[in-house]
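Backbone shapes recur. Consider a single case.
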Amino acid sequence: MPISERRGAAARTTVVWEVLRPVLDRGPGDVLDLGGGTGVSAVRVAELGHRVTVVDPSPDALASLARRAREVGVEVAGHQGDVGTLSDVPGPDGADVVLCHGVLEVVDDPAAALATIREVLRPGGHLSLLVAQRHAAVVARALAGHFRQALQLLDGEAPAGRSGRRFSQEELDDLLADAGFEVASRHGVRVFADLVPGSLLDLEPGSTAALVDLEHAVAARSEFLPLATQLHVLAR
């Protein structure tokens, strides 16, 4: 894995997991991981004693999920599908926690997807939502010299690319409110990780750990949210 991906993964795991852990530590429950792919998050949640179901459109990803779960010694149910097929997912009636990480960017209708998730969440349940943030993409395009692309992204005029659509904090808050969710917390993910040259982390011992500490320190500070590559929202 390239250095930039490793440091991004470390920063994302640190911030998101710390927010989720108090919710997951309340006791065993039913967790639905939408777009959970190969089960990196799902297996970790299952190790805490939760009953986990992954819904993903890729049969290859679900096969990798099954292998990962076997290697760790936990059970994770895999179901081929997407947000639109949640009513067909076998298992318990509803979920205590829904993980929706990197999914809202690629669905046809984000508002409808959130409404569907709201229907499967039990009373008092939590949604962990991780999405790509538009303002950080503007900065990234500008720093790369793609000024016209940055200008298009600035007001959301650019067409969705391979990575899908991007959201501002305000847009995300509006979508969640319209779907009947209350935001419990919001954090910026990868505020600096995607801006720091990988060569710097190679040359300076301890830089990666220090970068992760910095990401953790600024994650909940509102002034840094526009710089975050991703936004993580915990809602109920």
Notes: The radius of gyration is 18 Å. The CA atoms of residues 17 and 27 lie 16 Å apart. The chain has nine helices and seven strands.
